[in-house]
Amino acid sequence: MDYVMRKSFYLYQGNIANGSRKAKRIHVDTFSDMPIDVPTLDEQDKIGYFFDQLDNLITANQRKLDLLKEQKKGYLQKMFV
User: Fold this and answer.
1) Which stretch is the leader sequence (predicted)?
2) Which of 8, 17, 43, 67 is deepest in the core (most CB within 10 A)?
3) What residues contact residue 13 under an 8 Å CB cut-off, 6+ apart?
């Protein structure tokens, strides 16, 4: 969806749109025939794998942060006993 909302998409596809300069319309049939670049399945798999690894890294760091917060809490309690 982001792709077709870009200004560059409309500037590129604007020459086939109907209407005046200020009120161009792209009809549904014309729109559905427009080429839209998408990554290959191999690229999509690699992107998915990258984001899975990124999620795992975020989760691991969040756990580490939670443990450090608990450790800090423990040290503060010992400090004021």
Assistant:
1) none
2) 17
3) 26, 34
